Leucyl aminopeptidase
Amino acid sequence: MPLTFAEDTASALPLHVVEAGALEGWAGAQGGTVQTWVKATGFSGGIGEVLLVPDANGAPFLAVAGYGTAAQRARGRFALAAVAEKLPDGVYRLDGDLSAVALEEEALGWLLAGYGFDRYRAQKVSGARLVAPEGVDARRVEIIAAGEALTRDLINTPASDMGPQELEDVARGLATEFGAAFDVIEGDDLLSRNFPMIHAVGRASPRAPRLIDMAWGESGPTLTLVGKGVCFDTGGLDIKPAASMGLMKKDMGGAATVLGLARMIMALGLPLRLRVLIPAVENSVAGNAFRPQDILTSRLGVTVEINNTDAEGRLVLADALTYGAEAEPDLMLSMATLTGAARVAVGPDISPFYVDDDAVAAAIHAAGVKVADPCWRMPFHAPYERMIEPGIADLDNAPSGGFAGSITAALFLRRFAGDVSRYTHFDIYGWQPAPAPARPKGGVGMGARAVLDALPEIMGL
């Protein structure tokens, strides 16, 4: 099912969006037949409720979508997507008094209700197509849906088919599609080009580690996106138990989200200069794997004591961030499925992020509320810096004790962001643990839509 709006408006069935509290008045205004049918079916206008009203020949001449109450909608997202998943296949045209912001959210949710990961098996998805609602920027919504679908596809693909090379192939395809410059530093060239920690994390895998580098745009402020591309994480020599390893195909969720966001930016033609850096590795177990108590020297020259080989994401990101900071971008943003501590703190729905700049933080938070992509600012708490300073080396990649795990990881990364004052880090989950409207169980983008909406304010576009 294409994640696009329907163009066949002539056959579109009117779909009336009705709040629960307004149902009686709406039904009365429609006339006796509709009013009688609403009462006879017990339709109450709750979120996800659908009612087809037949004409004299038994064919539906209008449909009704329950929109619940404001309090009910506040407990979820994409209320109309729940309706789209229940309607019969066909084309529908919205009829309801929704605000412009709500209309764009619901239009996007409707498109995403048509997403299914069908690479290995056909999936049942909604066949209810929507005519682009009046006042909605249809092209923009379709581009956002396509970027989100790319992120989901990448995360959902198992590591057998999504290793460092395959991730490079996807990024290269985007570069070709949008006319971006593209470069890859691979294998032992990482050592000669001074990316020692990316090499150390990926060297135990037969699938060569690499740094993917894409650049797009001729003018405007500079934005660098850095995405963690650990295509599978065994934990290394500090190997994960089976229960913890089961979802590690999603450990490249940061790279997947960055690529989805980059696609949105390029397709929309935002007036900025974009750079995407993805350290793509597989953290494997072998005789040449890096070891606990090893001390690695980073691209920055900072030494790092390895106290857990399962805290590898911050190592590959560190070299990439150092490289990105060398160009002094106006904004540098990293995304990574980095810590379990972040999930304990805010759960799977919210994207925690770190930034020192209050204006950037406010813009991202407000955008997240606006576009139904919730984000929550976390603190770069300076007193915890001592927790990542082991003494034998400059930094510790896995402080003992377990306290403030997401914060200490963010502080670790900030050490490598150089003089980029507006460095922003997202510690995302990248996975929908249970089906929800517009979000089937599986890979999901987090934070990208909020960032996209905030960029004009942050970067003065």
The chain has 16 helices and 19 strands. The chain has two domains: 13-114, 143-459. Residues 181 and 329 are 17 Å apart (CA to CA).
